[in-house]
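Notes from hallway chat w/ T.B., transcribed later so I don't forget. T.B. wanted the structure written out for a chain they're using in a teaching module, and asked if we could keep both sequence and structure tokens in one place. Agreed to drop them here.
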Amino acid sequence: MLFPVDRNSIFTFSAALAHAIIAPTMKYLVFLIAMAAGVPFIAIVSSLTPRLKRLAFAFMVVSFLFNSMASINFLSMEYYRGPVRGFEVTFADLIAWGLALGMMIRTPQKIVWKPRFTLILLLFFLYTIFSLVRAGNSILGWVAIWQLVRMGALYWVTVNFFRTEDVSKQAIQSLVGAYIASGIILALNTFKQKYLDDIYRAWAFFDHSNTIPSFALIILCVLLVWLLYEKQASLIHFLLALVAALGTLFAIFTTGSETAATACDSLAIKTYSDWFLPSKEELSLLFTNLARTGKDTFLKEGYAYWSSSSFDAERAWAQGFSNGVQGRVEKSELLVVRAIRAF
């Protein structure tokens, strides 16, 4: 039996197939070339002089800011909504591998092969593997264990960077300088997203807004310690570190969202300003009397509305308007609201 063929559909399918195969393939190809050529290049360059090694280390620290953008995932699960989407390799990892080789070439006698806490970390690592072997669906667990391997490698490189530099003032300055650059870049990007791009909750270069506070606090702590204890810093370095520290605080504030109750309480439409966030019982009435009868338009599929009813300190009740189901949701989630007046 012959079926009619739509040529436009064939071309559309071919284009989609090419994009699905060629685009990721090019990304992997570029990254593999960077790994094959870049790692030896960084190893050779960083082994030439201490200044080049410190520069490579600073680039590694700054590149952490862009890990979500400059990475590939082997056995990728890009549509999985967790932070681990595959066996990830980032540019920070490539720089770290190059630095490790460079230190082995230049100062092998100063290498600490088993840094402090190696035994404790190894026992923890073996326990995670033991737990994973006994688990059911283990693929995500193996991906997380790969992250532990990457973190262990970065820990080893960082310890040996300072060890081969004899914990010199210049080595500490390379770390502080990298954090100053990271803090300023983070502040500028979140400012752009918040006030120029009109993004409600800035996410900077990360997958989610919630990553900014945890990342920024690391920078902030290091900079504050350096500002408090470094007595010989020049005025320009002091001011730059202070600007970067304040910039990280600003970046954290740009991730904050106005609470649902505050948004409703501050609402003013025409001459009415007595709006408030409905309770879960009032949302149920809205669903029964309006949404179910089609008398009002609510966002339905994939959306839920906040209520003013808390379940506990961390969760509150939310209402879906596709089927009327209510559920407990983490208060940090971003949902929609429907303000009401007394009825």
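Follow-up for T.B.: Residues 1-23 have pLDDT under 50 and may be disordered. Might be a good example for the class.
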